[in-house]
Amino acid sequence: MEIALIVLAVGIVAAAAILAFALRGRGGPIAAEPPRPDPRLDTVLAGQGEITGRFQQTIAAQAELQKALSERIDALNQRLGETLTESATKSAEMMGGIQTRLTVIDEAQKNITALSGQVVSLQEILSDKQSRGAFGQERMEAIIADQMAPDQYDFQFTLSNGKRPDCVIRIPNVPGVIVVDSKFPLEAFETLRGLASDDERKLATARLKADVQKHVKDIAEKYLIPGEVQTPAIMFVPSESIYAEIYTSFGDVVQQARRMQVVIMSPHVLMLAISTIQTLMRNAKMREQAYEIQKEVGALLQDVKRLGERVGDLRKHFDNTNKDIVLIETSVRGIERHADRIADVDLSPPEAAPALDSPR
User: Fold this and answer.
1) CA distance 114 to 108
2) 283-333 pLDDT, tens digit each
3) Sequence spans of domains, the chain
4) Alpha carbon 214 to chain centroid, angstroms
5) Nearest to 179 by CA among 110, 241, 225, 121
């Protein structure tokens, strides 16, 4: 707007200057003659009109430009506001999601911390030999107590030689008990698993093998009492990884244990063995009750026989009853025939006799 005003002022000044120059060139006005129009003045006036028209067009164009600029600024402000609102909404949602995830992470961190404490406690338990033995015994007791009746087993049972295995299992009508003893050769196994050089692994392997052989020998010598303990005895290893290592790397030790009437079992193998023992117990109980079952089956057959005889008697009664009913029906049909005949008899009064002629 200011530029247009400056342009207009410059045009007016230029027109005035041209007009003054024209008058000065003529030498001033002559009183005697009327002034004649100067053609240059027309040119100046025409240029001034053109400048004025262009100025007005410039003003109109500037007004339109200002209007378009204002509309674009308003649209930009509206779009910017919508974008900011949408960004704020998304940011709020994102912050809410982040807060939720942080809460979940915090809970997971607490669980991890608690689990770490439990792992540390388990490591502390397994690091002590006595605690490790108690841990293995508790696992064995949990498996047996979960699958067997209380009268089928005993923990810390004292044998006739004064030795106390971790558990004995009784089978009905079978002399002797089955011994289960828990052993946990963890130290040698951890040493073997943590070594890298061949020489160290050989030494650790020899130590683990010696530990297993010692455990097998102890069980065979302490608990296998002829006539009192059934063979084989069970050596329970409360770790599947140790059990797998023994059977994979020490096949000769496993065979030696079997020759000494000792079977090495992991938790899963012990559960399968107990299931087999339960089946044997059920079979023994069925054999024990076979006479009673046979006796009851005989009594049942006698009852069935008597039932058949009584059904036959009842059928005879039904046959006699049917015959009696047939005879009764025959009598009823005879009565009906006699009744029909009686109904057909004409019981109308006799006609009057003709009168006799009187004597004349």
Assistant:
1) 10
2) 777 777 777 777 888 888 888 888 888 888 888 888 888 887 888 888 888
3) 129-288
4) 46
5) 225
C-alpha 123/C-alpha 351 separation (Å) is 137
Share of the chain above pLDDT 70, in %: 72
Instruction: Report d(CA 192, CA 212) in Å as an integer.
Output: 14
114: burial class by Cβ within 10 Å (0-12, 13-18, 19+)?
Answer: exposed
CA distance 114 to 277: 39
Query: Is-contact 30 36, C-beta < 8 A?
Result: no
181 phi/psi in degrees, rounded to 5: -130, 135
The whole-angstrom separation of Cα 234 and Cα 220 is 10
CA atoms of 295 and 301, how far apart (whole Å): 10
- pLDDT at residue number 121: 43
Out of 38-42, 55-59, 80-84, 106-110, pick the least confident: 38-42
177-199 burial, b at 16+ Cβ within 10 Å, e below that, comes to bbbbbbbbbbbbbebbeeeeeee
Task: Report the alpha-carbon distance of residue 322 to residue 196 in Å, rounded.
Answer: 101
